[in-house]
Amino acid sequence: MKITKEDKITEVLEKYPATVEVFMRYQLPCLGCFAAHYETLEQGLSVHGIDVEGVVEELNEAAGL
Known about the structure:
By secondary structure, this protein is mostly helical. It has 4 helices and no strands.
């Protein structure tokens, strides 16, 4: 199944380790952030003013989905 904006950040990082590079590219320290455990991609990316749909596409590419 593809990664969606409704997925929790930590779940994406744990299930698809290759996505770490995408988070790092956008300078998002999600690995060390407590909020990543309960925030969705949409919530986390929106807070930082980042294009949610674009990043979700990049995450799917990185994960090979």
